[in-house]
Design goal:
Blueprint lengths: L3 E4 L6 E6 L4 H7 L2 E6 H6 L1 H4 L7 E4 L8 H13 L7 E6 L1 H13 L5 E6 L2 H7 L4 E6 L2 E8 L4 E5 L8 H16 L5 H13 L2 H18 L14 H10 L6 H18 L5 H16 L13 H9 L9 E7 L3 E8 L1 H15 L1
Parallel strand pairs: 2-9, 3-4, 3-5, 5-6, 6-9
Antiparallel strand pairs: 1-2, 7-8, 10-11
Helix pairs in contact: 4-5, 6-7, 6-9, 7-9, 7-11, 7-12, 8-12, 10-11, 10-13, 11-12, 11-14
Bound molecules: nicotinamide-adenine-dinucleotide.
Length: 354
């Protein structure tokens, strides 16, 4: 694995360092600061955090329902009570939920804290840790409230992923698959990717995922153009994630979203049947791991999912937005998904996952 990656941002460049073990935590602990740590991570890696006094630690419950403005304000109050000042170093440790809550607080408290982030899930390491987005849910609207505020430093250690359950590992892998698919343009690329996903070292895939994302976020940090394509699989994925009450984790919902989008593209004749078959049968379906998910019919309720897609924040008009694979432009954001196409995509997805 390479040593580091530097990302250009409106707040200046920031560095993601790749660490072979957890010794980097010792250096971080030497500086006074306040830590916000995922409660489960704290319990599993307690010996690494024991030397931080309880006055300097806040524990975060990494539950999707905690990603709210109320939780963020609660955390602000706790930090102020623990004497967090404008110049206090703020270190957060956890997966994407911890990142979203603590990143929002880091951007808002004193109009910006000096924030270091240690991602502990594969998803956060391979995808969310870079790109500046902090996101909170508003009622049933996913990630509707947020800011752009990258950490000053990121430390990535693959060591953390050893204690993740398989569902979380495959969820991270889902975002890795998405990022690599965004680069594949033809059957030859899809075939090379299928081989790589089966055989390459996950730490190489992780590094390359961040490299792919880096290109998009440096060109369009504020999500005004090309970066929107990183939401491939997310329009339907977010709807399914909510409909399953978050029992389908984010990255796996995104995989389902990419299958759905590919089915719609096939119906619109934007991709060939051969490409669809290879992409869906060799890459996407095997990445879904439905056997781990206790899937229920109610998760796939047509009206419910359609209504949820109508709430997607990428919508700019009356139509429903979706990012579709396309043989010429590769990926295409459209705003006119019809109810008929939606139903067809959903039925195709259900058949493929059955
Ligand atoms: N801000 C962004 O750019 C961005 C991008 C993608 C996803 N997200 C958000 O990320 C969230 C999903 O995050 P996630 O998938 O990283 O996981 P998570 O934060 O939901 O954590 C998943 C579970 O793993 C546990 N955990 C975390 N690290 C662990 C470790 N090393 N060992 C054992 N258990 C551990 C957590 O306590 C939790 O129970 C979603 O809310 C999604 O919207 C944000």
């Amino acid at each position: 694995m390479k040593n580091s990656l530097t990302i250009q941002s409106y707040r200046g460049p920031y560095k993601a360092s790749f660490e072979n073990d957890l010794r980097f935590l010792d250096a971080l602990k030497e500086k006074p600061g306040i830590w916000a740590i995922d409660r489960n991570v704290f319990n599993v890696y307690r010996q690494h955090f024991d030397s931080i006094g309880s006055d300097s630690i806040v524990l975060i419950d990494a539950k999707e329902e905690e990603k709210t403005v109320d939780s963020a304000m609660r955390l602000c109050r706790e930090l102020v009570t623990k004497s967090c000042k404008r110049n206090t170093d703020f270190v957060s440790v956890g997966g994407g939920i911890t990142q979203d809550i603590t990143g929002f607080v880091a951007s808002a408290l004193y109009r910006g804290l000096n924030w270091t982030y240690v991602p502990t899930t594969l998803l956060a390491q391979a995808d969310s840790c870079i790109g500046s987005k902090t996101s909170l849910n508003l009622d049933s609207y996913k990630n509707l409230v947020g800011t752009f505020y990258p950490p000053k430093r990121i430390f990535i250690s693959y060591e953390f992923t050893k204690t993740l359950n398989p569902k979380e590992i495959f969820s991270g892998f889902g975002e890795i698959v998405k990022l690599h698919l965004m680069q594949a343009k033809n059957l030859g690329d899809f075939s090379a990717l299928a081989h790589r996903l089966k055989n390459d070292d996950p730490s190489n895939l992780l590094y390359d995922s961040l490299l792919i994302k880096k290109e998009y976020i440096e060109e369009d940090e504020f999500d005004e153009g090309r970066r929107k394509l990183l939401n491939y699989g997310h329009c339907f994925g977010h709807a399914l994630e909510s409909a399953s009450e978050f029992t389908i984790p984010h990255g796996l919902a995104v995989v389902a979203g990419m299958i759905f989008a590919s089915a719609v593209s096939l119906k619109r004749q934007l991709i060939d049947g051969e490409v669809f078959d290879f992409m869906v049968k060799q890459i996407l379906s095997p990445s879904f791991h439905g056997e781990l998910l206790n899937l229920q019919n109610k998760f796939f309720d047509t009206d419910n999912l359609w209504q949820a897609m109508r709430k997607d924040k990428k919508r700019t008009g009356e139509g429903v937005a979706i990012i579709l694979p396309h043989r010429d432009s590769h990926l295409l954001l459209v705003q006119d998904l019809s109810r008929e196409e939606f139903t067809w995509g959903l039925e195709t997805l259900k058949k493929l996952l059955a």
